[in-house]
Design goal:
- The protein is α/β, with parallel strands linked by helices.
- It has a domain of 145 residues: P-loop containing nucleotide triphosphate hydrolases (Rossmann fold, 3-Layer(aba) Sandwich).
- It is built from 11 helices and 10 strands.
- α3 crosses α4, α3 runs parallel beside α5 and α4 packs across α5.
- The two termini are 39 Å apart.
- The protein binds adenosine-5'-triphosphate (ATP).
- The site of adenosine-5'-triphosphate (ATP) has 10 residues, from α1.
């Protein structure tokens, strides 16, 4: 059962450049959360700060009663073992085959025997659908396979928290659909806490329990998926619709009068379409109890939709 991460009043700057300030949110244990935001709003910086690779100027990150921002390097090293991280390109070692790449954290951080390592590596490769690709080098496989190998490597130490940095970047829509299903199935199987940074609005609508949005150096909103999908907050609506009209500009924010004029011209009557059903774990995947609650909630939303149509 994953662990809760409680972030309070977090602020990160580089020199005089404030990346984001006063960010507070709770990632509920075992749930999937997605962090959205225009390019450069500091989503990757947020992931790196959570895992302790970057130090914030203010605020706290509490996991299992310990504030990560106050830990000494030795204790932080221990807490980091709770995390698995899937970096954008899988971050695999180019000269090692997939088996050795995935075995790497086990050889580095545990005293397990090679036969035990073999059992774990093959189990994780099976989980991500990579059986048979053990001897391949990262350069010999597709981007989608590299991501899955990176995910298998993130899983080998049985993390309580998995951070995904743009898992869908560079993948075609079919591979993205497979990856989304894999993420949902994995979450149901291992019940860890997931945080996914993505630009893909379709995935953000389908996959998570919770959605957050960073913009203008602030966390505009963080909450249950349905709340964000039906929110009237202009930044949230613009981002989730992927449209030009609204407060988010090409490079910087727009002036208030222009935003008001643009918003007045938008036909927002299609609210109901936003009730995308949550992607459920595939057949044969054992579902922890919270999935029953999700399925009931989704069924209720569908009924309301039909009644309102
Ligand atoms: N180590 C660093 N030193 C100085 N500035 C940094 C560092 N890392 C990131 N930044 C700056 O922080 C800002 C946010 O970067 P970040 O990569 O987190 O954005 P992002 O929201 O993930 O963007 P994208 O969606 O394009 O990947 C950028 O202006 C970047 O230049």
């Amino acid at each position: 059962m994953g662990v809760e991460i409680c972030v309070e009043g977090l602020t990160k700057s580089f020199g005089h450049q404030v990346i984001w300030q006063d960010v507070s949110l709770t990632l509920p244990a075992g749930e999937v959360s997605v962090m959205l935001g225009p390019s450069g709003t500091g989503k990757s910086v947020f992931l790196k700060t959570l895992v302790g690779l970057l130090k914030p100027e203010r605020g706290s990150i509490t996991i299992q009663g310990r504030d990560l921002t106050k830990l000494r390097e030795r204790d932080l090293y221990e807490v980091r073992k709770l995390f698995g991280v899937l970096f954008q390109d899988g971050a695999l070692f180019g000269s090692m085959n997939l088996y050795d790449n995935i075995a790497f954290p086990l050889r580095e951080h545990t005293r397990k025997s090679e036969s035990e390592i073999r059992r774990i590596v093959l189990e994780k490769m099976d989980m991500v659908g990579l059986v048979g690709a053990e001897r391949k080098l990262p350069g010999e496989i597709s981007g989608g396979m590299r991501k899955r190998a990176g995910l298998a490597r993130a899983l080998v130490l049985d993390p309580e928290i998995i951070l995904f940095d743009e898992p869908d970047s560079g993948l075609d829509p079919v591979r993205v659909a497979y990856l989304n299903q894999l993420i949902v199935d994995l979450n149901a199987q291992i019940d860890a806490t997931f945080l996914i940074v993505t630009h893909d609005i379709a995935s953000a609508r389908l996959v998570p329990d919770n959605i957050g949005l960073l913009f203008r150096r602030e966390l505009v909103m963080f909450g249950p998926r349905e709340e964000l999908l039906t929110s009237d907050e202009p930044v949230v609506r613009q981002f989730l619709h992927g449209r030009m009209q609204g407060p988010i500009g090409m490079a910087e924010e727009k002036d208030a009068a222009q935003v008001e004029q643009e918003l007045a011209q938008i036909d927002d009557s299609a609210h109901v379409q936003e009730r995308t059903p949550r992607l459920l774990p595939g057949p044969g995947v054992a579902r922890p109890p919270r999935w029953e609650a999700i399925a009931r909630r989704e069924a209720r939303l569908r009924q309301e939709e039909v009644a309102g149509a």
